[in-house]
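REQUEST
  id: r-88c1
  op: predict_structure
  target: Aspartyl/asparaginyl beta-hydroxylase domain-containing protein
  payload:
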Amino acid sequence: MFKIDETADSAAFFEEFERVCAKELTPAYSGSDAWTGVRVFDLRGANRLSELPYLRSHLEKIGMKNVAMVNYYNMAPRSEQHAHRDQSGNLLFGISRLHIPLKTNPLAFLEIEHIRYQLKLNEVWALDTSGLHAAQNESDVERVHLVIDVKRAPETEKYFPKMTMAVRLHLAKFIIIMGFKVLRDILTKPATILDRMSYIVRMVTKQNR
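RESPONSE
  id: r-88c1
  status: 200
  body:
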């Protein structure tokens, strides 16, 4: 995870989120109200960007053809998200996940491979979700992030780490872990693994307008 050399207007993003989407948050994982979200764009057909002109203008600067998914996420006070790895937002598949804090506090953290990061307002951070990551909000107020999955392209290279030996070893480790999980899911729940893999193919290959 690393901070991008650019700034974002967190207050403007948050005002638009509050006005359009804040009342539509639903649990990001079933059975937990502590971590909620709302998806406003993906490659399965979700697209509410006409309601969010400030967000859309930001995405157009990235290049809409380079955007795979956009969510708002809210962490409730005194809550945490368990450590996990994701297939979306994953460097192995040519995707980097951007985090822009819209509402935060000094007791809200992202934990990446057991290292805590504090993301501040108006900052943009890039995360490879193949790494083990978790989140904590130890404060008494909610924490809201805008999360954007960006495809690798010449104009988006600044959102991706350089392919150093450490990064290559990290990805090799993830490939081994993913191989075991894919084999497990093929044997126990093949429908879900096929759905996830088809979406990854769409993320990598589909060209947005």
